[in-house]
Amino acid sequence: MTGRLIPDSALPHGDLQAIVIEQGPNAYVTPPTSGNAWARTFLERVFPIPGGELRCGAADALLSMLAPLFGCIGRIEEPLGMYRIHGKNHYWGKMLENLPGALRAREQHCRALSRVLRDRGMDIDPNVWLRDSWLRKLQRAVGDIHGLIPSGDTFILVDDDQWGVPHVLAGRRRIPFLEREGRYWGPPPDDGTAIRELERLKRAGAGFIAIAWPSFWWLVHYAEFHRYLRSTYRCITENECLVVFELQP
Fold it and tell me: Under 8 Å CB-to-CB from 205, ≥6 apart: which residues?
């Protein structure tokens, strides 16, 4: 696929300090981090970065996190770079493979953010940001899938294409939803389409549908589809990260 913007949503700009303080690292959307430019005045204030905060790498992500604390963030509307996907990328498409390292990096970044804020008179426990982090939710949700869906089975994953996990997830075949020829095709235009596509994939062998927390808005927006799932299939788990229905008897 070519011509896709990364990220596919508008880049935030302006004063982002409050959201970083509230949500911690990764609180706002950035371009691939090599696509950022830093003011010399900012770098002079944060360098040198303590070595312990870079044991897991991700120095560029650390700078993205700290920058809003030192001034407003600007953006350029026009894409000015390219990210090449060639099959040997170290990170792209390898979210689960990189998850342990990403969790370690986040822990280090949370401690670094807490340190900088403490120097400014704000005492925030880094565990506040760690408890409900995106990566921890992913770790828990994937663990639930491993425990609920037998190895070798096929399941539908509703995640708005956010997880970045492979098509085979620990021996379980994952189908995006909606999908065309195995590729993610975006959200359905209406409830009827969602129901028809669900039944088509069930006939093709899907045994479960898992709705991940980035797509919990589906349960409200596609209310008829939600009612259909509840009335037709058995819900086998429901928590803050995942809702799973068993499709096959």
Answer: 154
Q: Are 206 and 156 in contact (CB under 8 A)?
A: yes
Strand partners, 30: none
Domain region containing 204:
149-246
Cα–Cα distance, 61 to 155 (Å, whole number): 33
Residue 93 CB-density burial (10 A; 0-12 exposed, 13-18 middle, 19+ buried): middle
Instruction: Provide the domain count of the chain.
Output: 2
- The verdict on pTM exceeding 0.70 is yes
- Residue pLDDT, tens place only, 42-91: 999 988 877 665 555 578 888 999 999 999 999 988 888 777 766 666 66
Q: Any residues with CB less than 8 A from the CB of 158 and at least 6 apart, and which?
A: 177, 209, 210, 211, 212, 215, 218
Instruction: Based on the fold, state whether residues 23 and 101 are members of the same structural domain.
Output: yes
Query: What is the secondary structure of 121-154 as a DSSP string?
Result: T----THHHHHT-HHHHHHHHHHHHHHHS-TT-E
